[in-house]
User: Fold this.
Amino acid sequence: MNILVIGSGGREHALCWRLKQSASCKAVHCAPGNPGIESVATCHAVSVDDINGLVALAQKLGVDLVVVGPEAPLVAGVADAMRAAGIATFGPSKAAAQLEGSKAFLKDFFARHKLPTAAYKTFTDADAAYAYIDAMGAPIVVKTSGLAAGKGVTVAMTTGEAKEAAREMLSGALFGDAGRTIVIEEFLEGEEISYFAICSGTDFLPLGSAQDHKRVGDGDTGPNTGGMGAYSPARLMTPALEKLVNETIIQPTLDGMAAEGNPFHGVLFAGLMMTKQGPKLLEYNVRFGDPECQTLMMRLTGDFAAVLMAAAKGQLADAKKDFSMKDTHSVCVVMAATGYPGAYKKGTVIRGLEQANTDGAIVFHAGTKRSADGHIVADGGRVLGVSAVAGDVKTARAVAYAAVDRVEWPEGFCRRDIGWRVA
Ligand code: AMP
Ligand code: GLY
Assistant:
């Protein structure tokens, strides 16, 4: 089959790379893609927010399957538009994408179905929010209901900080309409795990776990980022815990969504907090994580394209037998532009990518472009995802960091401790 992947980051590079190796995949196209993706797919200059343009592209190419990478086009309804045009699509409908697109929707859904998550209340009025914050005390968590590019969450250690965050969100100054409704919730203590399931209505295929490193600095210090690296599987995940998560969170979510008329087709990415009372849901994303996706794609075997097609068509049961996650460990080290997540320079030249892409390491491009004179240059905050897979984390980490050291990019940096929680 011919496949169109929508997106341009490291996640999409990893998806294209894995799809291209699938027995049932003839060609991969990507919109808009990036210079790294060009090595495995044909890239087309259509932006992820141009839904009509994307449908027209899929029709022109005659693709058999569309795979949507980022959340924004899903929340905007790209999967509905593709399906309306008769194109099989891996990605949830606009209605089902509310699990990520609206925290108020997610929390109310969890309350209706009595699923494990932090206690919460939703607000549009500042005075009512302040009163709730005072009544609950700190630490407490304040979130924009709408999408805020990963920046809409404040974990406040004091009630003053929580009120300030609530005020800023509700005023619309920082997050626009995404913040005019906020969710204030109980602070949960524990270690976080990312968990992934390929879903097709009420059926699903567990894909496994990963752990992200959100802080910019070694030892989990400094400001939050989109993710400075990840490893898979997460050290805390056990078969028993996976069963518990599937039974108490994933399956009831799919059953509830289907019962309410919003069946979910796509990947469900659960951000879980492992609390003393068991796993609780922090958030859902309706797409793969970035850089978690890179670590998952390194470990997959079998015909991944066939699995995604089966999920898109509601025939997941048939595809499950051809699929497996290897008993391996993978690591992805993100190389970012100096200054990230604050201000950083674009356009700096990156060399050594060919040498880096050897000895078992793969360099996924996240924020790169080709300059007029043919160089690969940095074009974003998170720029590369240097990835490796091995029998244990230690080896995977050594292979990934050896590749990082072959990249010649003085204006870039990375954390040196990805996977540190695993001894
Ligand atoms: P979210 O986008 O909801 O995953 O929130 C971003 C980050 O904020 C999470 O990865 C957690 O580290 C933290 N966080 C969110 N909700 C809570 C909570 N209820 N308790 C503690 N930390 C949280
Ligand atoms: N790495 C976290 C995310 O993709 O949301």
